[in-house]
Design brief:
Strand content of chain A: 15-25%
Number of strands of chain B: 11
Oligomer: heterodimer
CATH superfamily of the largest domain in chain B: Butyryl-CoA Dehydrogenase, subunit A, domain 3
CATH architecture of the largest domain in chain A: 3-Layer(aba) Sandwich
Order of helices and strands of chain B: HHHHEEHHHHHEEEEEEEHEEHHHHHHHHH
Order of helices and strands of chain A: EEEHEHEHEHEEEEHEHHEHH
Structural class of chain A: alpha/beta
Strand order of the largest sheet of chain A: 9-8-7-10-6-1-4-5-12-11
Number of domains of chain A: 2
Strand content of chain B: 5-15%
Number of helices of chain B: 19
Structural class of chain B: alpha+beta
């Protein structure tokens, strides 16, 4: 049986290269100052989806919600082997927290439809919340397997996966459809394929096509879009209107999370207590830990 | 994340300044291929963008997948057990990832699933792979075998082998060397014979065959019974089936990831490639010339790695209360290394472009002939490119392989005792470098091959044009040194010619090739510095150094120093 997958991916700032001016006064990140990269765990998620496809056939569709330039990661997904890439973008989505993001993503996935597995990275390196995957599953009323280390098998309408837990792992089975979030070491993502790069480097979203028509009276957007669809180089683009969303639940309006304060915490060594390696010493240690609310 | 393309400003410089418009247009059939293949470029700019993107991928894989495996690959090496060769784990994984990225068919035509890239671009990838793991280059770089088949094989052979080279299922080997036929390939004995139906079979032994365990073997064999020279040799292709036995693999000083095999052919079915009797004269020469350029890329990659190791070590190592990088003697060694590296890279990519031109002109001439069009103009271009390349190929092999040995040597020297230990990569790089000026024709043979070009002034027209051009102020001074070098070279050449002593000429040819070659490279650097002032230091170092060496060489040659060769027995025995 062919298995269709949807992979949720995100373009993130490259937090490995942070400098002083990147943090804005309001505690949010000035993304324009950081190079944007493909969130690594999402690339791993795409690899797992492609491996399922290698074994079972079916389609792999990637979606991302983000600003127009997020189209870069979608092209990278096409380079890796995704069959279709979809950009969900609208000014009204800006400033979304995990609640608003998962609302938009779940509605978009409902519209895309026809899926057996939804893959996502465990978390994005910018927010580190690990909430969007699980919240999307809840909104879609799907079972979810988080922290996945390995897809063991997909058969008879069920997916079996190995999931990391504290101090070990557990093996879970779920009926399809299911949402799976993936750890970074689950698999090593395949490289981008040369011929796909050269083909899909020209793939464009609606927003990019619109930009091409700006200031060029000879280009008509509908015509251009048809042309790109015919060349199989159109990256489907969904906006607020396409998804008929509740504006109150999107972007800043739909986001109860507010960043209160950001501070740089330097972990320094403090004073330390010595305990004798004796019964009495251990007793003192336990007392101390209870006083500090580490025990009990 | 490191990237061997994006991090290497000198390599990027050469990529940015590439002028291969004509070559690419010929490769792309004037961009008509774009009508058929979605991944073919629609114009020159599009092609360059393709190359850039693919080289970025190669640079990423080289830095992040391949380089981390190099030490373990060197330690374990390729192994041989029960007649079977096994690559080191890292080699195997690197080949898999390169195949998945579709980089194993870079120079194979699109109709056979390849990328149809110019050789110049391919060589940039070879340089980066070599920097990551020199021994992997010996397998990755065998794409030239597929290229040779693409050039000379018949449709059936291309259909049968090339797509599988492209997807990485097949690797190849060129089986040329035999126990008694190394540098002297005319002496090849392995016999190819036909049965009554005309099918070919191979019988005999080949030695020192790089990747001899590969799936497809191009074999130089004697098809004409009773002949003893090159005209009795043909090229055949065969699958490595059960009749091909790997007898052993060599235990080597370096490039341990690359298996060097002794092969025994026991009536192995084979097919003739191209025409009989042209095996060595046409096809092996084609393949060897490409392979020599490939070794240039390998040398450049190792040299880059050795330079980086030395630089990083010098910055990190503190002695006398300061990083040794701050000691003038060490800094000077690093500058020397970098000058050689950059000068050689300029020579290298210049040679690559000439190689692309020559091959494309060749194809174009054939095409024009078939269309019954005038070939005169294209023929002239082909003749020029062939003449220049016949000089630049051995010069590049000579300069770059000797250069990498010196760079690796100095790189180890900067490490001090630490560098002699296995823990630091400079130890491996030092060993890997050593083969480059030996295989695919030793330096001594490259000098012989380049001597014709020196005697007939193969690049004289260009040197003359460049030395006669106008340059910016500071460069004008350097020009004087080059002009004097040309004088010195001419004097030496006249002296040698007048001497009419072939032994003396053979020996002095090393200095003559060095002078003439350095003059050419000096001109290249001068032109670069004129356009980009950042390159002035490299040009200055190289030109002053070459000039001083030229003066010294002149003294040597004119002193009659080598006349004692007549008394070699007395001296040596």
């Amino acid at each position: 049986m062919a298995i269709n997958s949807i992979v949720m991916v995100k373009q993130v700032p490259d937090t490995a290269n942070i400098s002083g001016q990147v943090m804005k006064d309001d505690g949010t990140v000035n993304r324009a100052l950081l190079p944007a990269i493909f969130n690594h765990e999402d690339r791993v998620a795409l690899e797992l989806a492609l491996q399922v496809q290698d074994t079972h056939g079916g389609r792999v569709t990637v979606v991302t919600m983000g600003p127009p330039r997020a189209s870069d990661v979608l092209r990278e997904c096409l380079y890796m082997g995704a069959d279709e890439a979809i950009l969900i973008s609208d000014r009204k989505f800006a400033g979304a927290d995990t609640l608003a993001t998962s609302y938009v993503l779940s509605e978009a996935i409902n519209k895309i439809g026809d899926y057996d597995i939804i893959f996502a990275g465990r978390q994005a390196i910018d927010g580190d919340t690990a909430q969007v995957g699980p919240q999307t599953a809840e909104k879609l009323n799907l079972p979810q397997i988080t922290y996945t280390e390995e897809i063991i098998k997909v058969e008879n309408g069920k997916l079996t996966a190995k999931r990391k837990i504290e101090g070990g792992y557990e093996i879970l089975s779920s009926k399809l459809p299911v949402l799976v979030t993936v750890l970074k070491d689950a698999v090593s993502p395949r490289p981008y394929k040369a011929r796909r790069i050269m083909t899909y480097k020209n793939a464009k979203t609606l927003l990019e096509l619109e930009k091409m028509t700006e200031g060029n009276s000879l280009l008509y957007i509908d015509q251009l879009k048809e042309e790109y669809i015919a060349k199989k180089l159109y990256i489907k683009t969904l906006t607020m209107d396409d998804l008929k969303l509740d504006v109150e639940r999107c972007g800043v309006a739909g986001s109860p999370t507010k960043v209160h304060k950001v501070e740089s915490v330097v972990l320094g060594g403090g004073k330390h207590d010595m305990f004798e390696p004796s019964k009495a010493g251990i007793g003192d240690l336990i007392d101390k830990l209870m006083v500090d609310h580490i025990f009990g | 994340m490191p990237n061997y393309f994006l991090d290497n400003s000198d390599l990027l410089y050469h990529f940015e300044k590439l002028n291969i418009r004509e070559v690419v247009s010929l490769y792309e059939d004037n961009y008509k291929q774009a009508e058929k293949y979605s991944y073919a470029p629609v114009n020159y700019e599009d092609a360059i963008e393709n190359y850039r993107k693919i080289l970025e991928v190669a640079g990423d894989l080289a830095a992040n997948y391949i380089a981390p495996t190099a030490a373990a690959v060197d330690e374990v090496g390729a192994t041989f057990h029960d007649g079977k060769v096994t690559y080191a784990e890292g080699t195997q994984k690197s080949l898999e990832v390169l195949a998945k990225a579709e980089l194993m068919g870079m120079i194979i035509p699109r109709e056979y699933e390849g990328l149809n890239f110019p050789t110049t671009i391919y060589m940039m990838s070879v340089e980066m792979i070599s920097r990551a793991d020199a021994s992997l280059m010996n397998i990755y770089g065998l794409q030239d075998i597929a290229r040779t088949l693409a050039q000379f094989g018949d449709d059936g052979q291309k259909e049968k082998y090339l797509p599988k080279f492209s997807n990485g299922e097949y690797t190849g080997a060129m089986a040329l060397t035999e126990p008694d036929a190394g540098s002297d390939l005319q002496a090849v004995k392995l016999s190819a014979y036909q049965d009554e139906k005309g099918n070919w079979f191979l019988r005999g032994v080949k030695r020192f065959i790089t990747n001899g365990n590969g799936e497809v073997l191009l074999v130089l064999a004697r098809t004409e019974v009773g002949t003893k020279d090159a005209r009795g040799l043909s090229m055949l292709v065969c699958k490595a089936d059960e009749t091909v036995i790997v007898r052993r693999i060599e235990h080597k000083l370096g490039i341990n990831g690359s298996p060097t095999c002794e092969l025994q052919f026991n009536d192995t079915p084979a097919e003739l490639v191209g025409s009989r009797r042209f095996g060595l004269l046409k096809y092996v020469i084609y393949l060897m010339n490409r392979a020599r350029v490939g070794i240039g890329a390998q040398s450049l990659g190792i040299a880059q790695a050795a330079y980086e190791e030395a630089l990083n070590y010098a910055k990190a190592r503190e002695q006398f209360g300061t990083p040794i990088y701050n000691l003038p003697v060490i800094a000077n060694m690093l500058i020397e290394m970098k000058t050689t590296l950059e000068a050689h890279r300029s020579l290298f990519y210049d040679t690559c472009v000439w190689l692309d031109r020559k091959e494309m002109y060749e194809i174009e001439v054939e095409k024009l002939k078939a269309e019954k069009k005038s070939v005169a103009e294209m023929n002239d271009k082909l003749k020029e490119a062939s003449r220049i390349l016949a000089f630049l190929t051995p010069l590049t092999k000579f300069f770059l392989t000797e250069g990498v040995n010196k760079i690796a040597y100095d790189g180890m020297q900067i490490h001090g005792g630490t560098g002699y230990m296995k823990e630091f990569s400079i130890e491996r790089l030092f060993r890997d470098a050593r083969i480059t000026n030996i295989y695919e024709g030793t330096t001594q043979l490259q000098i012989v091959a380049a001597s014709g070009g020196v005697l007939n002034d193969a690049v004289g027209e260009y040197i003359g044009k460049w030395l006669g051009a106008d340059y910016k102020g500071s460069i004008q001074d350097l020009l004087k040194y080059l002009l004097e070098m040309r004088e010195v070279f001419s004097e030496c050449l006249s002296f040698i010619k007048a001497k009419k002593d072939t032994s003396y000429q053979d020996i002095a040819m090393k200095e003559l090739v060095e002078m003439y070659g350095s003059l050419y490279v000096g001109c290249l650097l001068l032109r670069e510095a004129n356009e980009d002032s950042k390159r002035l230091f490299t040009a200055r170092r190289f030109v002053l150094d070459s000039h001083a060496k030229a003066i010294k060489n002149k003294e040597l040659i004119m002193s009659g120093i080598y006349s004692d060769i007549l008394h070699s027995d007395t001296i040596l025995i």
